[in-house]
Every structure is written in structure tokens, then in C-alpha cells.
TrEMBL record:
Transmembrane segments: none annotated. One of its GO terms (molecular function) is catalytic activity. SUPFAM superfamilies: DNase I-like. This is Endonuclease/exonuclease/phosphatase domain-containing protein. Residues 76-153 form the Endonuclease/exonuclease/phosphatase domain. It holds the Pfam family Exo_endo_phos_2. It comes from the Eukaryota.
Length: 161
């Protein structure tokens, strides 16, 4: 599914959460692609050959971030994952640390935060969603998701007979 989406949309990079990991590497991707993982292996970034300069900045427990240069402009790319059972303040601390230390550069955060909020399409609103919304407002982040966006995951089903 990931390869099909990459072929259809031709991105320079992919932000992934909960990828299949084997030997500390994202499994099932071509060796010509570069990839980085958070310390937990739950958040990753994959760059395609079209993505020119990439530099790994840091791997934290729940986040991975790299710096890319495109058209002579630097961008920080952040991939994050927060388990629904984890302490949500930890992910917010990691994101705050990263966004504070990039000295005003443009950044993009992509993540699976397991945080419900009506602003991004949930009917209910949990404390994690409220905390994430507060972080977004405090940092003046522009939310790219629309509340009517379809889900971006599928559930794999297996049958044992």
C-alpha cells in the first residue's frame, strides 16, 4: 500500500508510524531509499531519491526528525507516534524540544497521536486531543488535516483455519 501511494503521488519523503521493523530497519522498502527510526521504532521517515540533501537531527523515544534542503531552503521534518496508553505529555515535551531548537526554520510534523478532537474529524474530544490542540495553537501551527479527511489506514485481517 505504501509503495502504491508513493508511485501515485511521487513524494520526496514519507512519514510513517508503526512501521514493520526488522533489525532496527523499516522492513519491506528498497535499499536505495534512506530511512530513519525513533528510538522506539514506532515513528520513521523514508526519503526517496528525489529528496536531495537530508541530515538526521535526532532520534527521540517517540519522534524522529531530519533536516532537508529544497530549493536552497532548509526544512525540519518530524515524524511522531504516541501510543494511546502512553503519557501524552512525553510526546509534547519531545515536540516542544525539537521545535524550540530549530531556530525559526520551517517544519512539518506528521504523526499518529491517538488524540481525538473535533477539529480533525472525531465526534468526541479527549484530553489528548485537547492537549494537542493547545500545542498547535501555542506554536501557531497550521493544521493540514481537514475534519472530513478519510482515514489513512487499513486494518489487515488474517484468518486461521
Amino acid at each position: 500500500m505504501l509503495l502504491k501511494a508513493a508511485q501515485q503521488h511521487l513524494p520526496d519523503l514519507l512519514l510513517v508510524q508503526e512501521p514493520h521493523v526488522k533489525d532496527r530497519k523499516i522492513a519491506g522498502i528498497s535499499k536505495c531509499l534512506k530511512s530513519w527510526l525513533s528510538k522506539s521504532g514506532k515513528a520513521g521517515i523514508i526519503t526517496l531519491p528525489t529528496c536531495s540533501t537530508q541530515v538526521a537531527l535526532s532520534a527521540k523515544e517517540n519522534t524522529m526528525n531530519i533536516k532537508i534542503t529544497k530549493n536552497s531552503k532548509a526544512f525540519t521534518i518530524i515524524s511522531s507516534y504516541s501510543s494511546p496508553y502512553a503519557n501524552f505529555s512525553e510526546i509534547l515535551e519531545e515536540l516542544t524540544d525539537i521545535t524550540t531548537n530549530i531556530n525559526g526554520e520551517v517544519y512539518l510534523i506528521g504523526g499518529d497521536f491517538n488524540a481525538h478532537n473535533q477539529r480533525w474529524g472525531y465526534r468526541d474530544e479527549g484530553s489528548r486531543g485537547k492537549q494537542l490542540q493547545e500545542f498547535i495553537a501555542e506554536k501557531h501551527i497550521f493544521l493540514l488535516n481537514s475534519s472530513d479527511s478519510p482515514p489513512t489506514n487499513t486494518i489487515d485481517k488474517a484468518v486461521l483455519t
